[in-house]
Amino acid sequence: MSLWRFYIILKTLLTYGLDDLIPERFQRWYFKLARLSAFWLYNRHADKPVEVRLRLALQSLGPVFVKFGQMLSTRRDLLPAEFADELKLLQDQVSPFDGEQAKKLIEKAWKIDSLDDYLAHFEIEPLASASIAQVHAAQLHEDSPFAHTDIVIKVIRPGIAETMRADVELMKTMASILAKILPDGRRLRPVEVVKEYEKTLFDELDLMREAANSIQLKRNFADSKQLYVPAVYSDLCRNNVMVMERIYGIPVGDIAALKAQGTNMQLLAERGVEIFFTQVFRDSFFHADMHPGNIFVSREHPEDPMYIGIDCGIVGTLNKDDKRYLADNFIAFFNRDYRKVAELHVDSGWVPRDTNVEDFEFAIRTVCEPIFEKPLAEISFGNVLLNLFNTARRFQMEVQPQLVLLQKTLLYIEGLGRQLYPQLDLWKTAKPFLENWVKQQVGVGAIIRSVKENAPYWGEKLPEIPDLVYDALHSHRELQHQQSLLIEALQERNHKPSVVPQIGHVAAISAVLVYCFKDELWLSAALLLVAIVCWLGSHSKK
């Protein structure tokens, strides 16, 4: 099966002419011979640009490769812009599997004989179908203990895990080969990219993880007027089945429907930005797959619009240091303080400590000053971040996975915001939020909050402090006493006279005299041996 799949992949790559991606200087005689031996697999799409051929090849290879292409489209730090733009066109649209089979999978997961035990109605035809799972609408019984009766059930495709594992293993093999033959193999790190993709892909297979992410995000935005996350019925969730409240919002990409109901488009766009920065800087937990297919707008109160977010399979997190450095970077960019940006990258460890700050500052200024010549409303915040990462890459900046997710999400949010309200000034919307957040992290208020947060811990440890102080002082005194004894012993040993070296000297002189005047070779050798033993003994004692 693996060999046949490998042949299918190889056939697809060659018939789309993707061997053109290998530079001519790396196409050695044995490579050309192997390529000629597969003469029947000729390039059937020579009239198309290579980036288009790459997209078409991934589409034809199936859902695993489609999702890989989607992930690569966000890695603008690794790919040329024309490739990233083309891969963005990949659509994760897959034919649904049989609804009856989905029904049996749910029954097996719930360990019941019939869905009628839980459901008043189950729609065989899926609402939506993607590469990893599909969604069915259903209704719970009226006497159900849950608050809502209308639900959706997400079911993992049967056999998809095995297919994914086989394809990912082949992708790893291909990545290892590419890492060796591509001129940029070390920088592009194809093996690491595939491993990152593997983790993301298999995380999405675990619907219990997605359910937990949804519950966390819903709790973070409880009572919020900006974002609503559908309720998850965790008692009915399994690793391959997820049950959640059904929502009836308008897809965010349906601009005509949003305008038809009188939605405040400017407020909607600005709230999208606020939601993103709230997730990143307040919660350190952000939805990292916020493409238009996962976002809806509530039909209620169009003058005060609310987003509805679904599909939390991929989330990102930032630690405290990353958040602080990122916020400081954004603010420094707002103020065109490139020296500060360079210093922050060095301080955070994102670039090597020995980086020349002046050179780095000049490189950032060279890239970013032309951008700031445009009106703020025309500047892409996501592209500025992208330019920053690309510039830092020239100074050996290691790719930070959490920042790649952040960049991807920011590009989604900004693109969506501009689509909803073309005049959106993301800089103007984001700057006050970031400045307020930074102010909250420093000063007296931040100290008071830190004390409050740590008070229970210190309250628990406070009774132990006297004993700990006494033990530390006692141990210190004992250590000082031991050091004094050791020093005295060494001094006594160094100053104590020793007769052994003198015996050695006398034996050596005697050996010479005996040999010169008595001509007794054996006695002279014996005395010399005694001398050597004495000298070695005294030296070893030192």
TrEMBL record:
<feature type="active site" description="Proton acceptor">
    <location>
        <position position="289"/>
    </location>
</feature>
<keyword id="KW-0067">ATP-binding</keyword>
<feature type="binding site">
    <location>
        <position position="154"/>
    </location>
    <ligand>
        <name>ATP</name>
    </ligand>
</feature>
<keyword id="KW-0418">Kinase</keyword>
<keyword id="KW-0831">Ubiquinone biosynthesis</keyword>
<dbReference type="GO" id="GO:0005886">
    <property type="term" value="C:plasma membrane"/>
</dbReference>
<keyword id="KW-0547">Nucleotide-binding</keyword>
<comment type="pathway">
    <text>Cofactor biosynthesis; ubiquinone biosynthesis [regulation].</text>
</comment>
<dbReference type="GO" id="GO:0005524">
    <property type="term" value="F:ATP binding"/>
</dbReference>
<dbReference type="InterPro" id="IPR010232">
    <property type="entry name" value="UbiB"/>
</dbReference>
<feature type="domain" description="ABC1 atypical kinase-like">
    <location>
        <begin position="90"/>
        <end position="345"/>
    </location>
</feature>
<keyword id="KW-0830">Ubiquinone</keyword>
<protein>
    <recommendedName>
        <fullName>Probable protein kinase UbiB</fullName>
        <ecNumber>2.7.-.-</ecNumber>
    </recommendedName>
</protein>
<feature type="transmembrane region" description="Helical">
    <location>
        <begin position="521"/>
        <end position="538"/>
    </location>
</feature>
<dbReference type="InterPro" id="IPR050154">
    <property type="entry name" value="UbiB_kinase"/>
</dbReference>
<dbReference type="InterPro" id="IPR011009">
    <property type="entry name" value="Kinase-like_dom_sf"/>
</dbReference>
<keyword id="KW-1003">Cell membrane</keyword>
<comment type="similarity">
    <text>Belongs to the protein kinase superfamily. ADCK protein kinase family.</text>
</comment>
<dbReference type="Pfam" id="PF03109">
    <property type="entry name" value="ABC1"/>
</dbReference>
<keyword id="KW-0808">Transferase</keyword>
<dbReference type="GO" id="GO:0010795">
    <property type="term" value="P:regulation of ubiquinone biosynthetic process"/>
</dbReference>
<keyword id="KW-0812">Transmembrane</keyword>
<keyword id="KW-0472">Membrane</keyword>
<dbReference type="InterPro" id="IPR004147">
    <property type="entry name" value="ABC1_dom"/>
</dbReference>
<comment type="function">
    <text>Is probably a protein kinase regulator of UbiI activity which is involved in aerobic coenzyme Q (ubiquinone) biosynthesis.</text>
</comment>
<comment type="similarity">
    <text>Belongs to the ABC1 family. UbiB subfamily.</text>
</comment>
<keyword id="KW-0997">Cell inner membrane</keyword>
<feature type="binding site">
    <location>
        <begin position="127"/>
        <end position="135"/>
    </location>
    <ligand>
        <name>ATP</name>
    </ligand>
</feature>
<dbReference type="GO" id="GO:0006744">
    <property type="term" value="P:ubiquinone biosynthetic process"/>
</dbReference>
<dbReference type="GO" id="GO:0004672">
    <property type="term" value="F:protein kinase activity"/>
</dbReference>
<dbReference type="InterPro" id="IPR045308">
    <property type="entry name" value="UbiB_bact"/>
</dbReference>
<keyword id="KW-1133">Transmembrane helix</keyword>
